[in-house]
Write the structure tokens for this entry.
Amino acid sequence: MEYKVTLKKFFKHLHTINKHRFRVFCLSCKAGIPLQGLVHDLSKYSPEEFWEGVKYFQGSYSPIRNCKMIEGYSKAWLHHKGRNKHHYEYWSDLHAPETQPVMPFKYFVELVCDTYAAGQVYCGKGWTPKYQEDYWKKTRGDKYLNPKLVKLLDEVYRNGTKFGLKKVLRKRYLKNLYDKYIK
């Protein structure tokens, strides 16, 4: 694969961002956080994030992954996670007494909407809640993720598979789960 900026990759990456943001908005409306869904991931249009995304775009997963494989890190990811509170990495502070704090509820809800939307966009028509649960199981070992949040997300994705998104994305349902694991 060639890692350079082309007009075709420019428009495909732009379309992917727009599609993802629209999916997050739709899911956020269902989850009772429409304004967060509306402003979700606006930093992806910034030059720091956008141009790296175009350069490493391939369509079936995040271009950040390609960049990290080639460069060893991603400036776009460092920029993105530092500006978007729905990423648990935003809340990590290696020099604080509690290096892995739990994110506030409203960002937890946005995180859930974001991950479901990302799976739907990158997986396409083959996406199912089970896909999301399996993806989560493969990726949840991050040392910067609070163990309480891990257990909470385990149940969210498990119940997404078991009961469907219509039930799981209800704000009251998510709040009850959040309180069960976090409080």
Notes: DSSP finds ten helices and no strands in the chain. The two ends are 47 Å apart (CA to CA). The CA atoms of residues 5 and 51 lie 8 Å apart.
